[in-house]
Amino acid sequence: MSTPLEAGTENCAGPEKGEIPSALAAKADEIVKQYPASQRSAVLPLLHLWQEQFGYIGPRGVEWIAQKLDLQEIQVLELVTFYPWFRQQPYGRFHFRVCRTLPCALGGAGKTFAALEKLLGVKGDPHHGALVSEDGKFSLEYAECLASCGTAPVILCNDDFHEKVDEARATELVAACK
Amino acid sequence: MAAKERRLILKYVDAPGYTPDIACYRKHGGYEVLKKGLTQGANAIRDEVKKSQLRGRGGAGFSTGMKWSFIDPAKVTKPIYLICNADESEPGTFKDRQIIHKDPHQLLEGMILSCFANGVKLAYLYIRCEFTTGWKILEKAIAEAKAAGFLGKNILNSGYDLEIHVHRGAGAYICGEETGLIESLEGKRAYPRIKPPYFPAVLGLYMCPTIVNNVETLCNVKHIVEMGGEAFAKIGRPNNTGTRILCVSGDVVRPGYYEFECGALTLGELLQDVCGGIRGGNRLKAVIPGGSSAKVLRAGEVYKFKRKAPDGTMVDQEMKLEDIPLDFDSLAAAGSMAGSGGIIVMDHKRDMVECLANIAGFYAHESCGQCTPCREGVLWMKKILARISEGHGRDADPELLKDVADKIAGRTICAFGEAAAWPVQSFLAKFKEEFNMRIRRNGTAAKNDVVSLIH
Ligand SMILES: Cc1cc2nc3c(=O)[nH]c(=O)nc-3n(C[C@H](O)[C@H](O)[C@H](O)COP(=O)(O)O)c2cc1C
Ligand code: SF4
Ligand code: FES
User: Fold this and answer.
1) CB neighbours (10 Å) of residue B394?
2) What global pTM score does this model have?
3) Closest-lying ligand 1 atom to the alpha carbon of residue B215
4) Is B436 exposed, middle or buried (0-12, 13-18, 19+ CB in 10 A)?
5) CA A65 to each of CA A9, A47, A161, B168: distance values in angstroms, whole numbers, following the listed order
6) A159, B406, B408, B431 — which has fewest CB within 10 A?
7) For residue B127, what are the contacts with CB-CB under 8 A and spacing of at least 6?
8) Residue B341 CB partners (closer than 8 Å, separation 6+)
9) Residue B449 has pLDDT above 60, yes or no
10) CB within 8 Å of chain B, chain A residues 127-156
11) Of A48, A102, A144, which has the smallest distance from its Cβ to B168's Cβ?
């Protein structure tokens, strides 16, 4: 039910050393073609591609994308720091995002978040980035309105979207993370 | 009793057995309107859209026919781009999600017609990245449409070529603002551009003329071409034509999305008859009628409307909150807006200070940071509201808050400034006593779910 991230799978040596899979480079070239007027437009899709493959965007990812698109590294890095979806450190294999915006808050997102903190065994101040469990299996952070306010509270576990997540439902979802 | 739902855009959304693939779409008459449009010609479609009086469903309610008329494909020498705004991130709004997930070809057909009408050869569909499933559905739909000859080179042997690519955002609300979206699509931070001179119609994507339209707006174009602009203009009310998808969230028995003719029902009918009233037997306290940026309306309020009498003179008319028809002009007359169609309901047990603190937390997180009044002001507002909510408010805080909000609105590059200031200004104006009471009761303030989420 919950799809784990591909991070650290044996087909690549990890984001900071070793060969970059040729399939990744081929996919990147395909993406660049979608932007005939300016290849710079491909930065966001390439950042997505890298993060989906490796779980986060470190210096190597920035360097690789900059080279591919003939950009300064800062022109890539400044997007990583601007857009909340991108991260510079690995998160858990199962990353939870809990919507905290008003309709979800009215629907009990606070309780859901507290339940998940316990279930995932994460600690710390959630207002400064994601909380990661010690074993690296889980991480948790807030999200802003996920455009499903009628089924509050809603969460994302990696790419999978879940509605009406109360404590009981959260417990089920965490149990399904294998 | 309230008017019945009229599902034009959502006709097949949630219909039993209806699937998002092209075979199902075509079985239900899909892409027949495209054939009609291609024979009608581009100018004819533009005329029909003008006649339809369609207004944009993304938030501002701007006339689509007028927006298109700023670009004359016969005169423009640069490429013309069209971007579908599927960033759907205004809190309280969840309509585009339904269309993308459940009837993606309707959107594509509307988009192809709109591109054809405006001489567009390359279009982008900017979707928020959290819609991962939606993104995959759209990629598949585009491939299907291409394989069937509705997209790509020489569409249905008309000689017209069009490519559509999906472009994913990366979790920033400001990418919904059209010029921020354009910057983002150019591979930059989503810093909105200043207007003038950067009107998308003149200096848009890659400094070329660009049309940005919302998902629901583009779907409407399909129906306008199908039934004709005049017939479309008969749905709803003059200047508020067509249907509107209303997204209801918060403290009602049946939250969800509903589609009605514009202005066919009142706010009271929507909440009572359609949504089953307020949850838990509670009473209504407040409604935000058009996404979290819209000014709040308070239960029991009476508004003064100007109405045209049969003899043509303008007369004043009083209207209660629950009697406001849900259309652009009526909600504007009540001092708020229809915005994106997101209706957030709060019951009498809700603490307005905390609700506002939550909203302020959203804007503080989402300001792009370009303009000082916005970047600094939204943080101030959030911090002041958090401290009042947590029982450390100061006597002067309500005044200070108002002062900060007043100094943002009108002094920024984009309308985010207003979007952040309006909730604060309106909550303070309408629930002043709650703020003062909270401060008088300092130290004992109850801590609710709604505020623990911000900081
Ligand atoms: C802060 C801000 C956020 C916005 N977010 C969205 C959005 O998520 N989706 C959208 O369609 N329009 C959004 N808009 C409105 C767009 O700027 C633009 O007006 C709209 O996409 C035009 O389409 P329409 O004419 O079809 O409504 C936003 C505007 C502002 C100022
Ligand atoms: S008003 Fe706010 S969001 Fe808009 S450009 Fe200025 S700082 Fe950015
Ligand atoms: S507030 Fe959570 S989905 Fe909109």
Assistant:
1) 13
2) 0.95
3) 11
4) middle
5) 21, 8, 29, 17
6) B406
7) B86, B87, B100, B134, B135, B138, B166, B167, B168, B169
8) B57, B93, B95, B216, B244, B245, B246, B247, B290, B291
9) no
10) 127, 142-152, 156
11) A48
Q: Relative to the alpha carbon of B56, which ligand is closest?
A: 1
Token pair 């991230």: residue: A5
pLDDT (tens digit per residue) in B93-124: 999 999 999 999 999 999 999 999 999 999 99
Pairwise pLDDT comparison (A43 vs B3), residue with the higher score: A43
Q: How far is CA A36 from the centre of its chain?
A: 28
Q: What is the pLDDT of residues B160-196, one digit of tens each?
A: 999 999 999 999 999 999 999 999 999 999 999 999 9
A18–chain B nearest CA distance, Å: 27
Q: Which of B414, B418, B422 to mutate to test the pocket of ligand 2 (most atoms within 8 A of CB)?
A: B414
Distance B370 CA to ligand 2 centre (A): 5
Q: How far apart are CA B86 and CA B96, in angstroms?
A: 7
**Tokens at B52, concatenated:** 């339809």
Q: Which residues of A are less than 8 Å from B452 in CB distance? A: 110
**Ligand in nearest proximity to the CA of B176:** 1
The residue among B78, B94, B362 with the most chain A CBs within 10 A of its CB, best to mutate, is: B94
Check whether B379 has a pLDDT greater than 90.
yes
Split at pLDDT 50, 70, 90, the class of A2 is very low
Q: Which residues of B202-241 are buried (b: 16+ CB within 10 A; e: fewer)?
A: bbbbbebbbbbbbbbbbbbbbbbbbbebeebbebbbeebb
Contacts of B454 in chain A (CB under 8 A): 100, 127
**Which amino acid is present at B316?**
D
Residue B450: its pLDDT value, please? 64
CA distance A173 to A119: 10
Judged by CB atoms closer than 8 Å, whether chains meet at B250 and A103 is answered as yes
> Is residue A147 a contact partner of residue B93, using CB atoms and an 8 Å limit?
yes
